[in-house]
Structures are given as C-alpha cells and as structure tokens.
Specification:
The structure is a single chain. By secondary structure, the chain is an all-alpha fold. Helix content is about 80%, strand content about 0%. It has helices at about 10-30, 35-40, 45-85. α1 packs across α3 (about 45-85). The radius of gyration is 22 Å and the shape is elongated. It starts with 7 loop residues before the first helix and ends in a 5-residue tail after the last helix.
C-alpha cells in the first residue's frame, strides 16, 4: 500500500476557503432572505462590504491555486504514462 504525504498547507487553505465561502453565503443570505424572515431591511456597512470583497478575493485566489495544482498534477501523470507506454525498446 502506497503511503500518501499530506500537504498541511493545503489543509489550512481548504479550511480558510470553507470559512470564506461560509461568510459569503451568510452575508448573501442576510441581505436577501433575512429581511423576509424578520421584516427588517438589512444593508451593507462599509466594514461589511469590505470584508465581503476580501472574502470573495481570498476564496477566488485559493480556488485558482487548487485548480492550478490539480491541473499540474494531472498533466504530470498523463505525460509520464504516455511516455512510458510509447517508448520503444530496440535490441
């Protein structure tokens, strides 16, 4: 059985990504649905708007980083597989 190495930096990034997505969904929920439930109108404060933009940009950067890592990992595997099968042995 092959032992896999855990990349702890990616685990931390995933936790931060989930936190950012949770905060984005909470803000959107409070702005759209929260007013219907409580009967009060909610709006942006400057701090709330800045943190919303900050969470969106952080989540976007982490998502792009994961996407790039996945693409580079799959490209390396496919290239090595095609190279090993396409090599010819001459005697």
């Amino acid at each position: 059985m092959k032992k896999r190495k855990i990349k702890w930096l990616n685990v931390v990034k995933a936790v931060i990504f989930l936190f950012c997505i949770t905060m984005i969904l909470h803000d959107v929920f409070m702005l759209i649905v929260g007013g219907w439930i409580t009967g009060e109108l909610y709006g942006w404060t400057w701090l709330g708007f800045i943190t919303f933009i900050l969470f969106c940009s952080i989540a976007g950067m982490i998502y792009d980083d994961f996407e790039e890592q996945i693409k580079s990992a799959t490209n390396i595997e496919t290239v090595t597989r095609t190279n090993t099968f396409s090599q010819k042995v001459y005697k």
